[in-house]
What does this fold into?
Amino acid sequence: MKKKVLLLALVAVMSIGMVASVFAQGSQEVAEKTLEIKLGHVYDPSHPWNAGAVKASEVAKELSNGRININVYPAGQLGTEPELLEQVLLGSLDASIAGAGQVGTLYSPFNVLEMPYTFRNNAHVLQFTKSDLGKSLFEGFRKKFGGRIVGASTYGIRQMTSSKLVRTPADLAGFKLRVPEQTVTMAYAKAMGANPTPIAFSEVYMALQQGVVDGQENPLSVINAQKFYEVQKYVILTSHVTNATFFVMNDALFSSLSAADQEILTKAFAAASQLIVDILDSGDNDLKKKFTDAGVEVITPDIEAFRKATASMPKDFSYWWADEFGADFHTKIQNLK
It folds into this structure.
C-alpha cells in the first residue's frame, strides 16, 4: 500500500513537472513570437536616414512574418545623438543612429573615417563597411563599448556654399567658413585655406544671410533642407568629406537573439543602408539642377588642389588609430577597390 502511495505521488510530481515544462515551453514560444526593438535617432522624418530606419523596420517585419517590430522614434524624441548612443551602450535603448564623429568621441579609431577624401563616393562607404577593414574597426568598438554596428551607410558628401567664387584653396584666403566645432572639421577648414568659424547649426542661415561668415559646408541634402542656397551665390563641389554613419545596437541584446533573428536584422539593416545611398545619389543629381534653376552657380573646383591641401591630415591624426590598426589604416581604406 505504501509503495502504491509513493508511486502515485511520484507520478503526480512527474505530471506536474511535465505540465509545468509544457507550459513553460508554450510561454517561451509565445514570447518568441514578437520582438520589439526601439530605435531612436535625431533626424527629421523626411531625412534619408529616417527612410532607412523605416526600411529596416519593413524588411524585418516581412522576413519574420510580422514577429520582429523595429519601432522608429525620429527627430530627437528620445534624446540627442550623444545621449541616444549612450543609452544604447548602457542598454536602456535598443538601437540608435550615430555618425563616425560621434562614435569617435568614445572610440578614437573611428575618426579615421572623418579624414578628408577618405572615400571616393557613397558606394565606397558601403564597400568599406563590408570589408575586413570595416569589420575589424566595428569589432574593436563592440569589444570595448558593447555597441554592435548592425548597419552602416553614408550621411552624404560634404560640399561648400559661398558668397564668393572659389576654385582653389588660394581663393579661401581670409574666407570665413562655418564648420561644426569639432577637431577634425576645424582642421580641414584650416588646411583648405579658410578661417574656420564655429557657429551653432540653428544659426547658420542667418549668419550666411548677414555676412557673418562667407560660406559653410554640408551635404547637398542639408544645403537644400536648410535652404542655405537661398542666401549664397555659389555651390562649390569640393566633395572634401564623405561622412559615414551607423545603425548601432546594444550588443548584449543582439547576442541574446537566435541566429535566425540576427540574420533577419542584418539583412534588414543592409537593405536600409543601400536605400540611403540610393536616395542620396539620386537626390544629389536632382539638387544640382534645382540650385542652378534657383540662380545659384554650381562650380566644379580644382579638387586635386584641395586633396593636396588636406593630404597631411591622416598622418597628423594617425595617433587616433595607429596603435590598434596601424598608421597606414587610412591609406588601406582609401585604396579599397
